[in-house]
Amino acid sequence: MVGIILASHGEFAEGILQSGQMIVGEQENVKAVTLMPSEGPDDIRRKMEEAIASFDSDEVLFLVDLWGGTPFNQANTLFEDHKDKWAIVAGLNLGMLIEAFTGRFGMDKAQDIAKAIIEPGKDSVKVRPESLQPAEAAVETKSEEPNQPLPEGTVVGTGKIDIRLARIDSRLLHGQVATAWSKDVQPTRIIVVSDDVAQDDLRKSLITQASPPGIKANVVPVDKMIEVAKDPRFGKTSALLLFENPQDALRVIEGGVEIEEVNVGSMAHSEGKVMINNVLSVDEKDVESFKKMKDHGVTFDVRKVPSDQSKDIWPMLKKTKYVD
């Protein structure tokens, strides 16, 4: 029987599994894996690997809560080596789950079940009064960017890229960025600025696949971002920049890119780093980069999502031995 992994931010996966089993009955080869607030990408990936190892089938179907979120991204990483058999469906709801449970009685291929549950999942979204139900329409991008290459020196729009948000986030493009921040700043492009990621074809592919509808995603090295910021052909581009660490953000600023404020969202903990709150960990190099950006007149906005209250990073950095 096809193995099913339900994956979500928080305990949603566990709750919807309970709901599905209340309707369809107890299920074999089904596991709920959760990403809790104190956990990171490696934690949910480990849970997924343990779930897969427990199945008695090599056919695996991932049902995840949000396209582009961390559960999706980790499932997508595992999926890359099993594209011939496995499948991922995002936007999990109860109608979709019930269809997947019942579909296993007549289908033994994960991809067949995935194909069969998409329409029932969509049909589960209803509204009353019925007049509020939107007509089916293709997603259109509002971008005014040129849709074909332009000669060097061509001035488009203002002749200057509009950087609407510059964010340091060790997870790069994930659910909080793909949904909350994208809706808040409304970019035409999400640009991941990282030499390391630009050299990693798998990570680049996963990032471009996680881009929200109507927004393009690119991965560029630091030097390329500096070039783009000085290129007048990007005058109609509205950008959300993502940096994996403060060092890359500093290099861009030192290269002449005008960034007045940096949003600090997430910095993963690793050996040698000090936790300054529940999602930010720094070492001496990080702190030195923040100091140098401050010397350039940059201010810092510590927020995971737009609805959070903005906090100053300096009182947090004083918890370390690197700030007087």
UniProtKB/TrEMBL annotation:
<comment type="subunit">
    <text>Homodimer.</text>
</comment>
<keyword id="KW-0418">Kinase</keyword>
<keyword id="KW-0813">Transport</keyword>
<dbReference type="GO" id="GO:0016301">
    <property type="term" value="F:kinase activity"/>
</dbReference>
<dbReference type="GO" id="GO:0005737">
    <property type="term" value="C:cytoplasm"/>
</dbReference>
<feature type="domain" description="PTS EIIA type-4">
    <location>
        <begin position="1"/>
        <end position="125"/>
    </location>
</feature>
<feature type="region of interest" description="Disordered">
    <location>
        <begin position="127"/>
        <end position="154"/>
    </location>
</feature>
<dbReference type="InterPro" id="IPR033887">
    <property type="entry name" value="PTS_IIA_man"/>
</dbReference>
<keyword id="KW-0808">Transferase</keyword>
<dbReference type="GO" id="GO:0008982">
    <property type="term" value="F:protein-N(PI)-phosphohistidine-sugar phosphotransferase activity"/>
</dbReference>
<keyword id="KW-0963">Cytoplasm</keyword>
<keyword id="KW-1003">Cell membrane</keyword>
<dbReference type="GO" id="GO:0005886">
    <property type="term" value="C:plasma membrane"/>
</dbReference>
<dbReference type="InterPro" id="IPR004720">
    <property type="entry name" value="PTS_IIB_sorbose-sp"/>
</dbReference>
<keyword id="KW-0472">Membrane</keyword>
<keyword id="KW-0598">Phosphotransferase system</keyword>
<feature type="modified residue" description="Phosphohistidine; by HPr">
    <location>
        <position position="9"/>
    </location>
</feature>
<feature type="domain" description="PTS EIIB type-4">
    <location>
        <begin position="159"/>
        <end position="324"/>
    </location>
</feature>
<dbReference type="InterPro" id="IPR051471">
    <property type="entry name" value="Bacterial_PTS_sugar_comp"/>
</dbReference>
<dbReference type="InterPro" id="IPR018455">
    <property type="entry name" value="PTS_IIB_sorbose-sp_subgr"/>
</dbReference>
<dbReference type="GO" id="GO:0009401">
    <property type="term" value="P:phosphoenolpyruvate-dependent sugar phosphotransferase system"/>
</dbReference>
<dbReference type="Pfam" id="PF03830">
    <property type="entry name" value="PTSIIB_sorb"/>
</dbReference>
<comment type="function">
    <text>The phosphoenolpyruvate-dependent sugar phosphotransferase system (sugar PTS), a major carbohydrate active transport system, catalyzes the phosphorylation of incoming sugar substrates concomitantly with their translocation across the cell membrane. The enzyme II ManXYZ PTS system is involved in mannose transport.</text>
</comment>
<feature type="active site" description="Pros-phosphohistidine intermediate; for EIIB activity">
    <location>
        <position position="174"/>
    </location>
</feature>
<dbReference type="Pfam" id="PF03610">
    <property type="entry name" value="EIIA-man"/>
</dbReference>
<dbReference type="InterPro" id="IPR036662">
    <property type="entry name" value="PTS_EIIA_man-typ_sf"/>
</dbReference>
<feature type="active site" description="Tele-phosphohistidine intermediate; for EIIA activity">
    <location>
        <position position="9"/>
    </location>
</feature>
<feature type="modified residue" description="Phosphohistidine; by EIIA">
    <location>
        <position position="174"/>
    </location>
</feature>
<protein>
    <recommendedName>
        <fullName>PTS system mannose-specific EIIAB component</fullName>
        <ecNumber>2.7.1.191</ecNumber>
    </recommendedName>
</protein>
<dbReference type="InterPro" id="IPR004701">
    <property type="entry name" value="PTS_EIIA_man-typ"/>
</dbReference>
<keyword id="KW-0597">Phosphoprotein</keyword>
<keyword id="KW-0762">Sugar transport</keyword>
<dbReference type="InterPro" id="IPR036667">
    <property type="entry name" value="PTS_IIB_sorbose-sp_sf"/>
</dbReference>
